[in-house]
Amino acid sequence: MSLKPVFSDEADFRLLNDFQRDFPLMTRPFARIANDLGVTEAGVLSRLTSLREGGTVSRVGPVFSPRRIGASTLAALKAPPEHLEETAAVVSAHPEINHNYAREHEWNLWFVVAAPDAVALARVLREIRRETGCPVIALPLREEYHIDLGFDLAGKGRTTTQVSYGPVTPEVLTPAEVAIMQVLQSGLPLISRPFASVGNSAGVSESEVLSTVRDWVARGIVKRFGVVVRHHELGYRANAMCVWDVPDDQTNALGERLAAADGVNLCYRRARAEGWPFNLYCMIHGHDQAEVREQLAKIVAQCELADFPSEVLFSTRRFKQCGARYVAEKSTND
């Protein structure tokens, strides 16, 4: 499948590909991007607005690191197939849900919950169980071998993987940081001086917003800051979650090997749950299922995973996809 219809020219391509990370954290970031691309600031803002409205761009802003702030988990639910859509609507209605996908399995609805703390996270899961009447399992992250959430549209692959082992103590944010996060988690406003606007909404200065975001990036609280694209709209219409049940004492070695394989977008270890014995995960995205299955076969052979119990769950429908909300949205009455 060609991706050409998404891009009007080389500058358009670079806008989506080059600024998923290394976004200029400065007073007028879009002017700097425009200078790099050889276009106008107004042109960059207009194109990003159009791409956001069309769904190709989710937002421009931070991708927070799992476990560094708040609490989050992947969860799965068994919905009666004839009630899948209405069940998904109940789940998506919770603001703490940032991803909600149907997948090919008896555990047919998969969603990510992000909340300010573990107590709030448990409350959301209890409410979803009660409201849907369906079995729900929580599968919290234990180790991350590679989590980036970016897409290399040039097909050159990545050169590094990021490994984080064991439990991580969430950062305690100051009231000013919480206020900034509350505004930033939905993305930057697409205007000439976006950080000044964020500061105005958060009750702090533009310089404090910029220094805070730079500090978050340096400390790893923000994994990357930049253009967040949606893979489906870019032509990556086959999305497979691949899971294996491997011995605990082999998980880290296999996880590092799997994370380094070409075609793996995400790779991590999660807790097992009753009725779900799998602990090693990776995500593979492709233009169609045949492409993904071909890539997966190569990965399984390369990483010597063929002897372990496994499942491949292709997504069949996206019900919700947005940035994680670790802080409650500001009330319009505030």
What would you say this structure looks like, in words?
- This protein is α+β, with helices and mostly antiparallel strands and 334 residues long.
- It folds into 2 domains: 1-54, Orthogonal Bundle (Arc Repressor Mutant, subunit A); 71-164 and 232-321, 2-Layer Sandwich (Alpha-Beta Plaits).
- 35% of the residues lie in helices and 24% in strands.
- The protein is built from 10 helices and 11 strands.
- The strands form 2 sheets. A 9-stranded antiparallel beta sheet has the order 5-2-4-3-11-8-10-9-6. The protein has a two-stranded antiparallel sheet with strand order 1-7.
- Strand 3 and strand 4 form a beta hairpin.
- Helix 6 packs across helix 7 (194-202) and helix 7 packs across helix 8.
- It starts with 9 loop residues before the first helix and ends in a 13-residue tail after the last strand.
